[in-house]
Amino acid sequence: xNRAARTLYVDALDALLKGRIAEIAVARDWxxxxxxxxxxQQDAPLELASTxxxxxxxxxxxVTKYHLKGWTHMTPERVDAVRQRATTHHxxxxxxx
Length: 97
Description:
Elements: H1 5-18, H2 21-27, H3 30-42, H4 48-51, H5 53-68, H6 76-96
Helix pairs in contact: 1-3, 1-5, 2-3, 3-6
């Protein structure tokens, strides 16, 4: 699925803030999962603390929950590796059948 960059960013931020990471992983929405992982890894932009303090605090809390729920190792690079492995496994299974 190819989303526009802005749509992907908004969807990923919404998923991160609502704690929907597991739902995205189960759906194997690799593109969205990678963006959520990127947002969590980069953390909330510091300039938000002065421009939108409520969003900054919410984003920081969501990143903390992301780590506390065990998603720390789900980095963008890790998502790419899992995606590649899943794709390779699917290709092998379809050639055997």
